[in-house]
Amino acid sequence: MTLPLGPDELLTTTRSVRKRLDLDRPVPIELVRECLEVALQAPTGSNAQTWHWVVVTDADRRRAIGDYYKRSYDSYSEQRAARNAKLSAERQAVGARVATSADHLAERMGDVPVLVLACITAGADLPAGNQAGLWGSLLPAAWSYQLAARARGLGSAWTTLHLAYEREIAELLGIPGDVRQGVLLPTAYYTGETFRPAPREPLDTVLHLDAW
Question: What sequence ranges are listed for the domain Nitroreductase (predicted)?
């Protein structure tokens, strides 16, 4: 059963959920499968469908992925603090709220009931040139998964920090060498009632008609 969300509401209220992930409520694997069935309808280059989805529910493996994620996050958070110091006071305030939420997820990633890794067959070495064609055949499907999860009362978060330890995680999960990970989607029921659209810069600050 899905929530009564219109397309615009679904698209504008599917947020990265971190603090509000319910770490104590089990997520039925059947519900994850439903979300992935929706994801498989996403566009993919030449209709190749070379994606793979690794769904991790085993507690030990989740904990190990969480440890790698935390190590990567600790390094990233130092760089983020330096970048935020150069922003306006308003943007710094927003960044501080996001940082608190991200800190929480980094501490608890290994406790999230379901970790979904979206992967794609790409070869051991990524293309040296424009990779838009490669990732464009995977990332829309990952976003579709998040939308399907939101419609079913699940929260998720988009993160790629685990990729600093992609090889270690691949070894942990037995992922073949020619399959590359694109995004990690921690998935759980969420606490609270609903979500609101996030504040964004006005459209006209980024819109270019006919030319830059």
Answer: 13-179
pTM value is 0.92
For 153, other C-beta atoms within 10 Å of its C-beta total: 12
User: What single letter denotes the amino acid at residue 187?
Assistant: T
Instruction: Give the separation between CA 32 and CA 149, rounded to whole angstroms.
Output: 8
Does pLDDT of 93 surpass 70? no
Amino acid (1-letter code) at residue 44: T
Q: What is the mean pLDDT of the chain?
A: 93
Considering the segment(s) 7-191 as one domain, its CATH architecture is 3-Layer(aba) Sandwich (3.40)
Domain residue spans of the chain: 7-191
